[in-house]
Amino acid sequence: MLWLKPPTLLNSLSNSLSPVCPNRKTLVGLSLKNSSEKIPDGAYAILGGEGQAGNDVIGHVTSTYFSPTLNKPIAMALLKNGKNLQGQTIEIPVDSEKNLKATVTEPKFYDVEGSRQND
Known about the structure:
Elements: H1 9-16, E1 25-32, E2 44-47, E3 57-67, E4 72-80, E5 89-95, E6 98-105
Antiparallel strand pairs: 1-4, 1-6, 2-3, 2-5, 3-4, 5-6
């Protein structure tokens, strides 16, 4: 005998929503350009770089670490439309006079291809 579950409100709402929201925040990696300074946890991320209008907050830094293997600071961030920002430069305001520049990367920093996994 085949049992069918009645539709629920949650199922009908989730099916009606678009699976991909263009401004959804996604987890990305950040790699600092020309700096050994640590990015502050919780700092805002704004669009920066050549030809970009500043002060557009696109997300925030979730965690930062110094990688002894890479010998540089790395960070993770939640950015609006983060997958499409990969390779672009963003700015992280540290204080009123200083912004750190970072490149948006994959949230993997070491052995991205996975070649060391089975060594």
